Model the fold of this input.
Amino acid sequence: MDSVLRAGAMYLALMVLFKIAGRRSLAELTTFDFILLLMIGEATQQALLGDDFSLTNSIIVIVTLVAIDVGLSLLKQRSGWFSRLIDGEPTIIVENGNLLRERVRHARLSEADVMEAARSSQGIENIKEIKFAILERNGKISIIAKED
Amino acid sequence: MNDDRDHPELRSRSYPIREDMSYQLKVWRFERVGWYVLVFVVVLGLVGLFSRGLISSRDVRSDDGKIRLEYEMFHRNGSTNSMKVSVDATPDTAVELELAGQLLEGFSIETLQPEPIRSRSSSQGIKLWLQTDLNGRATLYITLRGDGVGLFRSQIASPGTNGVKLEQFIFP
Done:
């Protein structure tokens, strides 16, 4: 019983934590972000398994995690409200070449982040060439260039 | 936040995506409040709310001063902490010490040093007999591992002295 509860509690705790961290936190993985992720995984492992390293326990934990994940995706499919709660919504951050600074500030981004995405995805040099930049639900910035 | 909603940049757009900025503002506010909560938890961890720190470590004496107890008030399930019990009694004799209450329900005793001369179960817990030194002092070092979850009330007593009451909380 406790294995299932452990896995459920850990899933919930991590989900709330990463909601607090925001969608950008681990979207663009730097080397250090990757190490941070490994450290979080390492800290989680003990709490998930306790002092029971049996095959049965690890399978119960994995089954619980996958079941919660599939269950949530089914719920998201049925309810738009729930989907929005879990995944959030995309946000426009550049509109017709203008950076929407208030939005960028709230999303803890900077103009440099937007330009980085513009350069790497569209080869854009100037923010004026961007028609729309959208901060997607997964934290990536998608760029729509102006047509000239 | 009302100012935010009136800001022209924060009004909802409908092209190329349909936005709900009042919802998005709530999400950003949640992130901001969440950040304060995280910092608060870190501070609580530093001061010892989750074991081993300023507010967790206790050093208490019985009313007559004969029993001194150093222990951690907050424990975590599965982790070990030490406890030190000192008793003042007649020099070079065996002194009786009783660990009673919920101590043995919430914790398992990993080590007990020095080994008591004798030990016996009692109606409320266990009784141990320790050899006092030439100054009449006997000290017992106990390593406790938290097995339960929740609040556990116990007392440590010795005949002829006022016992010491302790409350310990074990986090999951």
